[in-house]
From TrEMBL:
Gene Ontology cellular-component terms listed: commitment complex; U1 snRNP; U2-type prespliceosome
Listed transmembrane segments: none
One BP term from GO: mRNA 5'-splice site recognition
Keyword Repeat: yes
MF GO annotations: pre-mRNA 5'-splice site binding
Region (Disordered): 238-259
Subcellular compartments: Nucleus
Comp. bias (Low complexity): 242-259
UniProt entry tagged with the keyword Chaperone: no
Superkingdom of source: Eukaryota
Protein name: Suppressor of forked domain-containing protein
Species the sequence originates in: [Candida] arabinofermentans NRRL YB-2248
Length: 557
């Protein structure tokens, strides 16, 4: 925080003391969100000289106060990047100050961090509608929002704006296409979009009907062509006299128009039946989803309040439902329209549900691991790795499972350099964490291409010396057993390694590994019997070890 002030170009004498005091407090405890909120409030509402009243900051406020507001927002969003509404508020203030380009940059940064946030996209579309004044400028933004959050359960917040935008510019074809897309999605306000679709179908003419059914579907399902729905000239015989032909022509045209109208009416009736089937299918899945959505009371990020166990369980069940059921339906020939879309777009429904969940549960590693596993089940290891990296940045540093899992995936992806970097970082953060050191050992062995047996032993010896005499000494004795798993270490090297510690180690981990060495690896009955005797003389206090010795004697002797 203070570094930001140093680089801001502001003179400390120009900064109000009350603001500096709050800045100093958040600088000392950057995780104290209440102090950040207080700093934001005093930056937005400028106190009078006697501090009895406040004045809301505006475009006419001093450059110092506007700069302080920007500094406060920049820093709070670095500390808490999942505060969706704060991104929008910051951009709105910049827009109010006349900095449209900077406001756009803030929205772009917000989208890069929270690409599936319906709140950010809703506000960004409103902002874009005010600042971009042509269809060609606005259309890509609306389409980008559809691709990003179009499958969000509350995506009506962007579809309403999108449809109003198309209607404003009289884009009939695009309007029909968008309504047709929306009715295929299980979203909260699905019913009103179906009403709009049926209104469009009822009002369709020979031109707009093409936007509701494709040429291929018309041919496949109705054995018709566009020509069967439009007026055609009468086909009278060439031998008919001219006068008779002229009299007969209007009647032929009327008959053809009646036939055309009849064909159009029948098509509309049948299409309505088909899309009623889609309506019923969509309604069913919305009801299925609603049993989870209705229980989610805090779908946003809050740094200081923990989610209840019930809400966490709801998210977990919701995600599992989407994954296992996949919103799939049995496709059959009579209802292909109703079934196709829910199965084909299901992955995006699952992904956006995960992204929504991770906004609210950003500090819970369980959901980051669950999302990573989702991508792994689809054999998308790069995306699984990206999710873990995001989770590491989002969760408190005390949660080591994400880093341990990341090391595993980097190894699987044959990215040993980065795997080693993560393992070393974890060992530096938690030098007495056995799992971290074990992962480092695994990575080092792979980087040495199975030729570093002696190096592994030296690495373990160094660690054992480091923790000797500390409360962590016994827990690190499990390294003796772990080394038995590495085939790159020779039997003779392992034997010397164990003999070095036989007189100083009394933990059950050491002696179990030592017995395993002679029982499973270097099968020597005489030496094994000798080691059993030494273990009993030392009276190693472990019922487990005693039972293990008895089992060895029963099998071996």
């Amino acid at each position: 925080m203070l570094l930001e002030l140093d680089n801001s170009g502001l003179n400390s004498k120009d900064i109000p003391q009350y603001w500096l005091d709050l800045a100093e407090q958040v600088n000392k405890d950057a995780t104290n969100f209440e102090k950040w909120e207080e700093l934001i409030n005093v930056s937005e509402l400028i106190p009078t000289s006697n501090r009895k009243y406040t004045t809301k900051i505006s475009k006419l406020s001093s450059a110092v106060h506007k700069k302080l507001l920007c500094i406060a927002y920049e820093n709070v969003l670095v500390q808490f990047p999942y505060l969706e509404q704060y991104w929008c508020n910051y951009a709105q203030w910049l827009y109010l100050f006349g900095n449209t380009n900077k406001a756009t940059d803030v929205y772009n940064r917000a989208i890069s961090i929270l690409p599936k946030s319906i709140i950010i996209w809703k506000n960004y579309l409103q902002f874009s509608s005010e600042t971009l004044l042509s269809f060609d400028q606005l259309a890509p933004v609306f389409e980008q929002s559809r691709l990003a959050v179009g499958h969000h359960f509350y995506s009506h917040l962007i579809y309403d704006q999108y449809l109003d935008f198309l209607k404003l510019y009289n884009k009939t074809k695009e309007y029909h296409y968008l309504v047709r897309r929306v009715i295929e999605l299980p979203i909260y306000h699905y019913a009103k979009y179906f009403r709009e679709f049926f209104n469009l179908l009822e009002a369709a003419n020979l031109e707009t009907i093409k936007y509701l059914i494709s040429k291929e579907d018309l041919s496949k399902n109705y054995q018709q062509k566009w020509a069967d729905l439009i007026d055609r000239p009468s086909k009278n015989k060439a031998t008919i006299e001219t006068q008779t032909k002229q009299q007969a022509q209007p009647q032929a045209q009327l008959q053809q128009q009646q036939q055309s109208k009849s064909a159009m009416t029948e098509l509309k009736i049948d299409l309505r039946k088909r899309y009623i089937d889609l309506y019923i299918t969509t309604q069913y899945y919305v009801f299925q989803i609603w049993q989870f959505e209705s229980k989610i009371t805090h779908p946003y990020f809050h740094p200081t309040s923990e989610l209840t166990r019930d809400e966490l369980n709801t998210w977990n069940k919701y995600l599992s439902y989407l994954e296992t059921n996949n919103l799939k339906v049995n496709i059959n020939s009579s209802n292909q329209v109703a079934n196709s879309i829910l199965s084909s777009q299901n992955q995006e429904l699952v992904v956006i549900a995960y992204e929504r969940c991770l906004i609210a549960t950003a500090q819970y590693p369980f959901f980051w691991l669950k999302f990573s596993n989702f991508w792994m089940n689809l054999n998308m290891i790069d995306k699984a790795i990206d999710v873990l990296i995001r989770g590491i940045w989002s969760c408190p540093i005390t949660h080591v499972k994400l880093r341990l899992r990341l090391i595993d995936l980097l190894i699987l992806n044959k990215d040993l350099t980065n795997a080693r970097t993560v393992a070393l970082e974890l060992c530096n953060i938690y030098p007495n964490l056995v799992d971290a050191f074990s992962k480092l050992l695994q990575v080092e062995q792979l980087m040495w291409n199975g030729q570093g047996g002696s190096k592994l032993i030296k690495l373990v010896e160094s660690k054992l010396d480091e923790v000797k005499g500390t409360p962590f000494e016994e827990s690190f004795d499990c390294m003796f057993g772990i080394l038995l798993n590495y085939s790159c270490i020779s039997i003779s090297a392992l034997e010397k390694f164990f003999e070095k510690y036989v007189n100083v180690k009394s933990s059950k981990y050491f002696w179990k590994a030592y017995l395993d060495f002679y029982f499973l690896y270097n099968q020597n009955p005489e030496q094994l019997q000798k080691i059993i005797g030494i273990a009993r003389e030392k009276q190693v206090d472990s019922n487990l070890l005693s039972r293990y010795i008895n089992d060895i004697e029963d099998v071996y002797f």
